[in-house]
Structure formats: C-alpha cells, structure tokens
C-alpha cells in the first residue's frame, strides 16, 4: 500500500539493481602494512581558517565581474585623459562603451576558462594569458560591432573607447591583468588556509575509513577537510584517526550534516558489504549533499601513480539535486522575479491588509513554523485567513471545506491564492523559492492528520517524505499545478503530493519553473481544491 514495499530501500537510495551489482566486489586481502594504517601518524593538516568554505564558482564569477567593472571605469577615465571629439568628457558615452566591452568580456572569459579547465577545481586557478586574450577579443568584437552599426544603421553615438580603443585596450589590459594576479595570490593564500576546502564527513572508522582519512591528509590537505568520522560499531569509535575525531553514530551524522556546513558524505565501507552500504544510503538519502563511496584498496593502488590530488577516486552514488551553477541560477531567478512581483503587488497587499483588519480582530500576517531546506525550521508568512483564536502559531490542523475558522475575507484570499503573497518576503530572505515542494506544518506524527494512523511518523508511511527537504520549499509547486492542492484527507493524497514533489526535485530545470509559474497564474482562480 503506502508503506515501504520490498525493494524500496534500493530505489529510494537512488541505486538500481544493476548499480548494486556494480559495487558488490569482494574485497581483496590487504597487505600486512595496510592493516595497521589506523596507527600510522598522518601528516597533520594546516589549521582551518575560521568561517565557512568559499565557493570556487562564486569566487570565479566575482573576479570576472570585478574585471568587467574595471573595464567600464577605464573607459570613463579615458574621457578625462583624452581630448574627445567635443573637447569635454562624456561619461555617458564612455559608460555605454565600457558596458559593451565588459559584457563581451563576461561572455568570452568563461568560455576560455571552461575550454582550458572544465573541472570545478580549475575554477580556483587564474590565467593572465587567458584573461588578456579574452579582453583583446572583446575589444575587437566591440570595435567591429560599432563599425557595423555605423555603416548599416547609421548610429550617431561616438563612444570614446571605440575611437581611442588602443588607449582603452592598453589601460584595461594593465588593470585587468593586475586584478588577475591579485586574484591568483588571494586564491593561493586561501587554499593554504583551507578556506576553499570541501568539508567532508566520513562514515566508517575501520580499515577503509582509516585509509581514506590518512590518504586525504597526505595527498589533499588543502582540497578536502574531514570534519569527523562516524560509525555504528563500538570497536571503531575509539580515539581519533590522523587527528580526525569520532563524532558519533549514523544518527548523529544526520544531525551533524543538518546543523553544520558540510559539502559531502563519504561512506568508507568494503564494497562487498553491499547490504550495509544500502542501509546507510537509505538513512542518508534525505540529506541535500552528495554521497560518495570511498575507493577499494585495489582501485587506489592501481591509480596511485596518475591520480589527481583532489579526486581520490570516490564513487558518487547519490548526487545533490542541483549543481552549484543550477543553485546560483535558481537563486538569481527567484530573487529577481520575487522583487518584481513584490513591487507590482504592493498596492494589492496594502488593500488586503486593510480588509483583514476591517473584517476581524487580530494581526494581518499569520506566522507558522515550517520545515525548510535540510529540515531547518523557519517562519512562513501568509495573510491571516482565519479568526485569530483559530489561527494560533502552534496549530497544525489543516483547513477543511466549510471550516468555521475561515473569515469572509479569508475565504476569498484562499480561493484566489492571495494569502500566499507575503511569502515573497520569505523568498527574498532565502528561506523559500518561487517554485518547490510546499512547506508542510511540523506534524509530530501521522495521527494529527489521520487518527487511524496513530503515532506513526510520516517517514514510516512515506519513505521519501523527508527527501522533499533536499530543495528549498516553494510558494507553488509541481504537485499544486497538477491538482494536489488543499487538504490531504487521506494518506493516498499525501502520497501523490510527495510523489510529484520528488519528481520535481529529480527533474528540475529553469524551464520547468517557468512552466509551473505560468500554470499557477492560469489555474489560481479556477482551482476547486482551494478553500
């Protein structure tokens, strides 16, 4: 029925039967020296700098953006240094010229970077040659574009940088080159301080965990930082490994990842222990971080001579829902659209606030604790649609058709979805997204929804329920536009909602978000499940 069926562990963990066979190799017997690896003193890593780890992608974008700004400033300074056609500086024309060159540079520079270093770790490196080549191409492309517009369109705008493009090129080359050198020096320093290291936790304190932790300390101390290791077996939870402390069992690992900035989980168990690996995948599958499998000794030995410093040949068995670039795109899209919608709907929100105050006593906004990204609670904002005594913050009873707690204005707001507008502030604060799984109230057990289920937790009924929190909750979602909105009177309806939420997480794209937003606008007034 709705409970976990035979084989759901394998499906929920994201590993097919074929995938299970592919990792079920028998472990080869270790040499005698490797059996004592737990007692080998690893090279102590340098102290970790305070603060969270920095994103290589963010730093790369920041560097290119600062170089683009420098190009604009150089073009404007040229109006002061040069005479110009009219003898007076024209900062508007210079700014337009600089923006044109800067925009082309922002497109060309990442293309050169990705063509010469496609891996994430190469985003940390800087190349003055590549930067200057991108600037030269941008200047030439801008000059050619202006010549084309002047000849075929007849534009009368004489941007200073195009008339004096050699001087502008020379000035921008010096400034942009210095920024690249400065960025490389800062990155090298932060790498030594391990501020750019990926934060890792390891499950498994036996021989495999000891080998992996010591290998990280010897070969990648600046790229990976092991925060601690966890194990469920008492004999593997004593002391530390290479200075890495034992922080508890698998349940403590889940709490640790939800409370600390962790980039990935590494399961360091023998590949032949497939049942135990699948059990750990079942427990960790709700966490929004990649889950990787530490290499076997035979893989490590065969690749030791030509492996790269930061790969360590871990096998990814469950990746994060969205890549770092996808998260950046979605975040920019959310905040941009939310800002526009907030400006457009402010008059409507003011009218709604007045109607709520006139209709019934109590506050305008309704705040309630909901579970958000990575199971972290936050206060969701909505217009109050119920009587104040019936809408206490701790209440978790769902609204029902004909619910006496709903006010006259509240009934209209719920039918038209206008009560959700204040959640735009949640989006701007980074707690929610425009599109995503809807945040549910914090129910203690399933009996609060369906009395016949007793005190069973929702996770025991819906195996993927907690996986909804691998992505930020949304104002609207795939389940809502597919008709699964409103009260979930039966477990079957909740199962369908969870199924659609997981589909959205596994198949996210920016185009899917646009489609859902468009369908939300079209169906908001015609939805019969809104009450």
Using only C-alpha atoms, the radius of gyration works out to 28 Å
Total tally of structural domains: 3
The total of helices stands at 19
Strand order within the widest sheet?
3-4-2-1-5-6-7
Range of strand content: 5-15%
H-E string: HHHHHHHHEHEEEHEHEHEHEEHHEHEHHH
* Helix residue percentage: 40-55%
| Mass-distribution shape | flat
The largest pleated sheet is described as: 7 strands, mixed
Q: In terms of per-residue confidence, which ranges show pLDDT below 50 for 5 or more consecutive residues?
A: 1-46, 83-88, 305-310
Number of strands: 11
The N- to C-terminal Cα distance equals 29 Å
* Overall SS class: alpha/beta
Average pLDDT number: 77
Provide an overview of this structure.
- With 531 residues, the chain is α/β, with parallel strands linked by helices.
- The chain folds into three domains: 153 residues, NAD(P)-binding Rossmann-like Domain (Rossmann fold), CATH 3.40.50; 137 residues, no CATH class; 200 residues, no CATH class.
- The chain has 19 helices and eleven strands.
- The strands form three sheets. The protein has a seven-stranded mixed sheet. A two-stranded antiparallel sheet has the order 8-9. A two-stranded parallel sheet has the order 10-11.
- A hairpin with a 2-residue loop joins β3 and β4.
- α4 packs antiparallel against α5 and α5 crosses α6.
- The longest helix has 36 residues.
- The N terminus is likely disordered.
């Amino acid at each position: 029925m709705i409970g976990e069926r035979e084989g759901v562990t394998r499906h929920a963990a994201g590993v097919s039967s074929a995938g299970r066979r592919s990792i079920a190799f028998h472990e080869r017997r270790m040499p005698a020296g490797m059996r004592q690896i737990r007692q080998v003193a690893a090279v102590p890593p340098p102290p970790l700098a305070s603060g969270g780890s920095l994103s290589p992608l963010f730093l790369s974008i920041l560097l290119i953006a600062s170089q683009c700004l420098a190009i604009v400033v150089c073009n404007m300074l040229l109006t002061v240094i040069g005479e110009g056609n009219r003898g007076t500086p024209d900062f508007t024309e210079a700014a337009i010229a600089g923006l044109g060159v800067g925009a082309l540079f922002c497109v060309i520079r990442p293309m050169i970077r990705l063509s010469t270093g496609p891996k994430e770790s190469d985003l940390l490196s800087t190349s003055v040659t590549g930067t200057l080549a991108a600037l030269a191409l941008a200047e030439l492309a801008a000059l050619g574009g202006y010549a084309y517009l002047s000849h075929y369109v007849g534009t009368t705008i004489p941007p200073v940088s195009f008339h004096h493009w050699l001087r502008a090129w020379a000035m921008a080359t010096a400034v942009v080159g210095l920024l690249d050198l400065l960025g490389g020096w800062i990155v090298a320093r932060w790498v030594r301080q391990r501020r750019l290291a990926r934060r890792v936790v390891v499950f498994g304190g036996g021989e495999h965990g000891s080998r992996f932790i010591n290998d990280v300390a010897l070969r990648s101390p600046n790229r990976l930082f092991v925060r601690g290791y966890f194990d469920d077996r008492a004999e593997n939870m004593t002391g530390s490994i290479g200075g890495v402390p034992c922080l508890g069992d698998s349940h403590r690992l889940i709490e640790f990842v939800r409370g600390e900035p962790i980039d990935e989980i590494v399961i360091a168990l023998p590949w032949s222990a497939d049942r135990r690996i699948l059990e750990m995948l079942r427990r960790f599958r709700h966490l929004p971080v990649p889950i990787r499998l530490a290499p076997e000794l035979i893989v490590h030995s065969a690749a030791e001579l030509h492996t790269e410093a930061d790969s360590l040949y871990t096998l990814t068995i469950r990746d994060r829902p969205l890549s770092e670039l996808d998260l950046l795109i979605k975040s920019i899209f959310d905040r941009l659209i939310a800002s526009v919608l907030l400006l457009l709907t402010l008059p409507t929100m003011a009218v709604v606030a007045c109607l709520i105050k006139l209709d019934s006593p109590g506050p305008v906004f309704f705040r309630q604790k909901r579970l958000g990204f990575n199971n972290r609670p936050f206060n969701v904002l909505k217009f109050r649609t119920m009587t104040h005594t019936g809408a206490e913050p701790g209440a978790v009873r769902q609204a029902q058709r004909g619910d006496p707690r709903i006010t006259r204005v509240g009934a209209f707001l719920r039918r038209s979805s206008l009560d959700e507008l204040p959640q735009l502030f949640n989006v701007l604060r980074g707690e929610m997204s425009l599109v995503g799984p809807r945040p549910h109230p914090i129910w203690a057990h399933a009996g609060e929804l369906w009395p016949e289920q007793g005190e069973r937790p929702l996770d025991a009924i819906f195996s993927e329920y907690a996986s909804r929190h691998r992505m930020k909750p949304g104002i609207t979602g795939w389940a809502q536009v597919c008709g699964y909105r409103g009260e979930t009177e039966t477990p079957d309806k909740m199962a369908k909602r969870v199924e659609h939420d997981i589909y959205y997480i596994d198949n996210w794209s920016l185009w899917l978000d646009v489609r859902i937003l468009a369908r939300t606008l079209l169906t908001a007034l015609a939805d019969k499940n809104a009450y």
